[in-house]
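During the second half of the funding period, the structural biology subgroup turned its attention to how the target accommodates small molecules. The most pressing case was zinc ion, which had performed well in the primary screen but for which no bound structure existed. We therefore specified the complex as follows and requested a full 3D prediction, including the ligand pose.
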Amino acid sequence: MNSIKKEFDSLVKSVEDKESLKQLKSSFVGKKGKITHFFKQMNGLPDVSKREFGRKINELKGYIEDEIRKKSQEIDKFVKQRALEQELIDISLPARINKFGAVHPITKTIIEIENIFQSLGFNVEIGPEIEYDKYNFEMLNIPKEHPARDMQDTFYVNDNVLLRTHTSPTQIRIMKDTPPPVMFVSPGKVYRRDSDITHSPMFHQIEGLLIDKNIRFSDLKGVLIQFLQMFFGDVPVRFRPSYFPFTEPSAEVDIGCIMCKGKGCRVCSHTGFLEVLGCGMVHPNVLANVEYGKEYNGFAFGLGIERFAMLKYGIDNIKLFFENDIRFLNQFSYMAGKTL
Amino acid sequence: MIVSYNWLKEFIDIECSVSELADKITMAGLEVDSVKKIETYDAVIGQIAKITSKNGLNIYKVDTGNGFTEIVSTGKRLNVNDKIAFVENGKKFKDTIIKSKEFGEFKSNGVILSAYDFGMDAPSDEGLVLEETAKNGAKLNSIDEFNDYLIEIEFTPNRADALSILGVARDIKALTKKELKYPNKDFKTNGKKIEDIISAKIENYANCPRYTLAAVDIKVKPSPFFIKMRLLKSGIRPINNIVDITNYVLMAFGQPMHAFDADKIDGSITIRNAQIQEKITALDSKEYELDEDMLVISDDKKAIAIAGVMGGEESSISDKTTTILLESAHFNPTSVRLTARKLKLHTEASHRFERGVDPNLCIDATSYALKLLSLYADAKIYEGIIDLKEHSFESKKIICKYSGINKLLGSNFNKDEIFEVMQNLQFKPQNQDNDSFIVYAPTYRFDMENEADVAEEVARIMGYGNITATMPVVSVSFKEENKINSYQKRVAEALSYMGMFEVINYSFTESSRLKLFDKDEDKFVYLKNPLIENQSVMRTTIACGLMDNLVFNINKGAKTVPIFEFGRVFFKDKDYVKESYKIGFLMWGNTPLNWFEKERFYDFYDIKGVSEAIAGISNSSFIYKRSEKEFLHPKRSADLFLQNENLGYIGELHPDLYEVFGIKFDRKKRILIGELSAGCLIERLNNINMYKKIPKIPTVTRDLAVVADKDIDVQDIISTIKNNENIYSATLFDVYDQLKEKNKKSLAFRLILKNNSDSTFKDTEIDEIVNSVYNEIENKFNVKLRG
Ligand SMILES: [Zn+2]
């Protein structure tokens, strides 16, 4: 009997598939198997020995059946595994997804800036691109022949109608139609009669206005510092006196140069600072022009989207925004960096 | 304006370094663009001992203080005894080592420097003559004027008061609390009276509120070295002592002055309006035609100067001038500005007058000029100064509140601090009661009107950085979203995810291009003053820009150009302009190359995919009807309707138009273009579809394949199928048009059946429904079941 067990052990080890296992099983415990054969031999034995012999054979039979079952499970597992292995694919193949398509970096930047201001409670308003002189200049405290008009060379449609030179006329339009308080940003295209390496005759600005009771210059600082640090990261921000006819006091806002971290480089003309926006407390004349009561005041600010986009993405030429070279636009794709 | 640091120090003591100073005044509103030290490198002082001239060359024997050397120059001849700056061979100047140079038989041992070599506006061939006291052999920077910094300041238009050395010094005084040092203005007169030589009157006091004249006998000669140098540093070319002194006073005090040759004046002087088409040749030797809104200085016969802008050539100072009339006046800023703009003549004088020159400065400036003339022009000054004005010029009184200033700024400046700032700015503050105070803004501060202006003065001198940032407390509530803005974002995101690139084009274009896409020329909006001709008309269509982008990208080697733009278009509307929004889209070239799909070229159905996506954004569906637009392919284009409104078109560009854009027509690579008015799509942005109940029983689908005539629009068949009350949806999943019967196409639809009851369909019911669908389209479109 021991030799049968040994024989079985060595045979079962070498079995690799279900069919051989089945044969092995029948050659031991099948109708003509070796174990069955033992049972038949048992008939001739005395009762005592018969019982003892029977128990041993049953033990052996049980053992063999267990081993066969285990082996069968092992083979199942192995077969499944081999089947999976044969399904190997190259996971490095490019995805089955369109690699194309991008939102223009200007739109992208506008959306980002709007989202920040919306999170600070500002609404979004849109104004016309072709404006009356009255809204673009006069009601913003820039009368005809004011030297400040030199700062903005203007395209005219006729004597009273022009392409807006800044988004500020939206301030007038909203305030004329809305009683205070108001709080909004207004993005859009603006036009100046100027074209060279650093100027484009059309570019984009975003205007901001907050009018309420008890608004202070310090609030303007607070809001803009918050915004600039949300957009550019943790940069130093400084406010410098400046001049805009429609604000008083007025300020120019600089951030620590993001290229050189304030050490001084070509981008910041070795000053360590980058001028990024203009702002101020809304001029009393402007508030009077829209017939807002004296108890109301507030602040306004304006910034150039192209400048923000150029600083954020390290773009060095404003013309790139309007050439619309696919190789440029593709860099702003949601699949940016993949080849065309 | 460029300010010499040395000159500035004559007006005020400065204790900090020049870069600290630059930082201080920048943070107070005078933005310093750059600070440059004047570098002299290895330049030393020498003196011309002897000059030999030959063949247009000057061979100078130069006393180097330590012997003599020879320097050859092709430049303007200097004089014996002139002190000069030179660099010897082998020494350094700027980035170069001076090398020995041979001029025919002569060898030069160095070079003589000109003011141009120091970056100043002067002729490069004119050796700079130094002051007589300069020491031969000493380093050039031993002369004070070469040991200086040039501070370039960019002034905002409101700060006319600071457009001079004195003006900058005044801000420094307010910042550092040092006292100003005014230059000595004492001069002696000569006994002769001004009335004996000239009289003057003003006809237009509105545009010339003040006019002063002094008369002086002078000798015209070159200016002393320091005046020349300071003018050069300020970007002004020295001419002669008289002109230079007027410019020197302009830079020092900010008062433009003009000197007339008294002998060239006929009779008396009148400040009057020009006559129509009156002509004058100005100092720049150009003739200007004036109009009656312009103010001139005139003698009895003719205009001798354009008031506040430029003097006339005829009465200007020449070598022969012996007596001058020295003008110092105050002109109306708007009048000067209009004149300068109309004549396109912008000068140092007009720049200042149009921003505002202190009306109380005239006499001080004249006195200083007379003092300088007596020192450097052998002046004999006539007694008396003509001073014409209707009234005196008072300081502006502004009443302020300490609390008001702190409230506007959000600051906590105490009263004493604010009072002191006002004092240092020479605003003469006076406390009224516990909170109010009065200030008198000096007459050079044209920008002071109200408390806000005063608050800015306080803030800029105290420092914007000393106001602590706060967050506003607001009572504004959130309004509904701006639909245009939201729509733009949705379109940009949706189309870019579809594989399109957003582009942004100029809003102006060329009218000939525009006419290709829009025949309604009467509605075009033209610019009065375009920069260039092909940017002279406002776009009425996005298509032009997209075509430009296509051409640009093809020229850059692009193989695939799928682009779109959302933007405004402009139409004439009486005296004004109507703006509306359009979405334009264009596809050309190969579909993006990849490993899982066969490469093909964009066709009509790709561009239709874009218009369908756009419809989807607004929860709308378009009706497509064949288009008759001339710029589109007659058989491959459609007009798009939403309800009954025509929103635009899609289709292939007409093959005849490719050439206009310089693109070779390629049968395979068609240009697909589309454009939609966005107005009602924006309105429908928030349209929603109400939820429809999902049937409880499982979906039953059946396929139906038919053969139809080629000219039948599938859209019609599909809508007929969908109209069947038992059909939930019908999807076209196969089209085959290469059948043996040339005029036929085979179509296959997958139908999802709608079960209007709650029990499962029986097979017979299903067959009945599919049959009824088939019968309907067979009747209507004469289709046959595919065998
Ligand atoms: Zn930098």
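Two results from this model are relevant to the next phase. Chain A has twelve helices and ten strands. The longest strand of chain A covers residues 202-213.
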